[in-house]
Amino acid sequence: MDLQVVPLHKYPQYSMQCCQLINEEWKRSVTARMRSLECSCDVLPTCLILLKDKKVIGHCKLSLIPSICDACFIESVVIDKSLRGKGYGSYLMTKAEEYCKNALNLKTIYLSTKGQELFYSKLGYDKCQPISIYGSSSIVNFPMYHVHHTTKNKKQIGNENNSPIPPPMPKTTLVCTEITSKVYMKKEL
Ligand SMILES: CC(C)(COP(=O)(O)OP(=O)(O)OC[C@H]1O[C@@H](n2cnc3c(N)ncnc32)[C@H](O)[C@@H]1OP(=O)(O)O)[C@@H](O)C(=O)NCCC(=O)NCCS
């Protein structure tokens, strides 16, 4: 069987097939998806595709973590619906890890998942603290923490200084739910 994992930007002729594969799992406009795929490059972000007999059957994206220079965040891992459960996902992940280690000289891979923990743990990923893939701090800033503390502080400020109570913070409960329901995992390469 002819199986290959290659960077998408070296094989741009597969971009539309790749776009369709990802969009079958996570619906998004073709324009937005193609724009995101066009960002793939030799440094991060890099989109890797799994080709079987010259057809795109898998994809994953390696993204930069600004606060951790020798690591990346793997996301949008997907295998063609009709070919799942046959070892292709494991093959793609193993090749992606080799790429991270040998081509990008990275030491750690992070990811977050909702429901695929077993798939990743079989590949050697362990649960870890949530990390932020935005900004300079690697620690995720939990919004609930702020909601709780600002409510307390509001009363104190009003009482001690007799100053007007500031307007309420924007509602952040939804964001918090989303962050906490994801499981973060990592693997040392
Ligand atoms: C997750 C996904 C990439 C796995 O790919 P796959 O080709 O089906 O996985 P494999 O066949 O290589 O499975 C490897 C092992 O993980 C197990 N596994 C795969 N998906 C699993 C799941 N959702 N839950 C539990 N175990 C799972 C398999 O049973 C297999 O176990 P085994 O080695 O003991 O037989 C694929 O199911 C997929 O594209 N899912 C939809 C998109 C998605 O959720 N991506 C992950 C985003 S975090």
TrEMBL record:
Molecular function GO labels: acetyl-CoA binding; N-acetyltransferase activity
N-acetyltransferase domain location: 6-149
Superkingdom field: Eukaryota
One cellular component term from this protein's GO annotations in UniProt: cytoplasm
Coiled-coil spans in chain: none
Alphabetical list of PROSITE patterns matching this protein: GNAT (PS51186)
Pfam family membership, one: Acetyltransf_1
InterPro entries: Acyl_CoA_acyltransferase, GNAT_dom, NAA80
PANTHER family with a match to the protein in the record: N-ACETYLTRANSFERASE 6, N-ALPHA-ACETYLTRANSFERASE 80
Protein known as: N-acetyltransferase domain-containing protein
Biological source species: Ignelater luminosus (Cucubano)
